[in-house]
Amino acid sequence: MAEYSANAVQTVDENGSVIFTDTPVPCRRGLIRHRDDSGSFLLKGYVPQQSCGCRDDSANYLCSFSANIAIPTGGTVEDISLALAIDGSVIPSSTMIVTPAAVENFFNVAVTISAQIWRGCCETLSVINTSDQPILVQNANIVISRPDLYMSR
Predict the structure, then answer these.
(1) Do residues 146 and 45 touch, judged by C-beta distance below 8 A?
(2) How confident is the model over 55-80, as pLDDT tens digits?
(3) What is the DSSP letter of 133?
(4) d(CA 60, CA 119)
(5) How far apart, in whole angstroms, are the C-alpha atoms of residue 39 and residue 62?
């Protein structure tokens, strides 16, 4: 499991990525790569060999994201949204939409998805502003885990 966050308010442009500045719980297994102050997570398609052949050919990541979002001063009061994207393609079922009544009126949004990464491949996960205008994002937090792997020491 790994956790990344960004507590300060940030303005995320239309089609831009939420930037994560802190790594409270880093991935110590080399499955997730992230550079602080960036919005991309590289997920590795590591699948252990099984003699029974009972695993499929993909790594299964559980990705949980939450944040507070709002329209900045000077913005248009309308629906605003964020979504998770893999390799730049938005996952439609991950879209989080709110309709604030006024600018700087924060709402909490959250979503959890399962992301399958093919064995031996790497894909990029990010959180994208899918609104028609810049938005404010505060207290962004993402937890990425691999529940399909047995954790032993």
Answers:
(1) no
(2) 567 899 999 999 999 999 999 999 99
(3) S
(4) 10
(5) 17
Q: Where are the domains of the chain?
A: 2-48+57-145
What pTM was estimated for this model as a whole?
0.91
Residue 104 tokens, joined: 């700087």
Residue 51 tokens read as 């003699």
Q: Is the distance from CB of 36 to CB of 21 less than 8 angstroms?
A: yes
- Distance, in Å, from the CA atom of 88 to the CA atom of 17, rounded to the nearest integer, reads 10
Residue found by looking up tokens 């031996």 in the block: 120
- Specify whether domain 2-48+57-145 bears CATH 3.40.50.1000: no
Other CB atoms within 10 A of residue 11 CB: 12
The Cα 12–Cα 6 span in angstroms is 12
